Description:
The structure is a single chain. By secondary structure, the chain is α/β, with parallel strands linked by helices. It has a single domain, classed as Maf protein (Alpha-Beta Complex), CATH 3.90.950.10. 36% of the residues lie in helices and 24% in strands. The protein is built from eight helices and seven strands, in the order βαβααββαββαβααα.
Amino acid sequence: MKSIILASKSPRRIQILKDLQIPFKIVPSNFEEKKYEKSKLTPLQYALYNAREKAYDSAKKIKDGIVVGMDTIGAINGRVLGKPRDKKHARAMIKTLSGKTHSVITGIHLYDVKTKKELSAAEITHVTFTDMTDKEIDYYLKLGMWRDVACAYAIQEKGELFIERIEGDYFNVVGFPVFKFGQLMKQFGMPLWDLINK
C-alpha cells in the first residue's frame, strides 16, 4: 500500500486524517497562489488549479507515494474569498457574508509520484450566515479564529454561532471534504476502509 502524503500543514486537515486513523505523512507545499483576479478562472477552476499545483509542488520532494493537494475558498457573487490578510480584511469578509449565502469550494488533487496517475474533484457546500451586528463581529474577531482560514471564519470554532444553515458536506467547510476524498481514493484503488483496517 502506498503512502499518503498530505501537501498541507493545515492543523484542521491533519486532525481530520488523524481522527480517521489513516496513516499519512506531511510534506507541505510551498506553492504560492496567484490572486484570483489575475487567474482568469472561475472559482471552481481556481480551487482545482491551486490543489493541483500544491500536489505537484510537494511531489517534487519525494520519490514515491500518493500526494493529496487541497485548496479551500469561499465564493459569493462570482467573487473569491481566500484567507484574510489581516484583521481589517477579515472584518470586511465577514461583513460581506453577513445575512447572505455563500459557497465553500474545496479542490482536491491526488497525484501518484511514480506512475504519474492523477485525479481531481471538487466539493461545494452552501453556507448561510445570519445578519451579524458590528458587536458580534467584534467579539468573533477578538477570538482570533479568522487567522489562516478561508472566508475569515472557522465553522468548528465558534463559527457555528452565526451560521443559520449549511447545505452539503460539513467537513468541506472545515477544509477537508472527507466523503469526496474517499471517493477519489477508491478510484485510485486505495479505499479508505482498507487503510483504516490495515
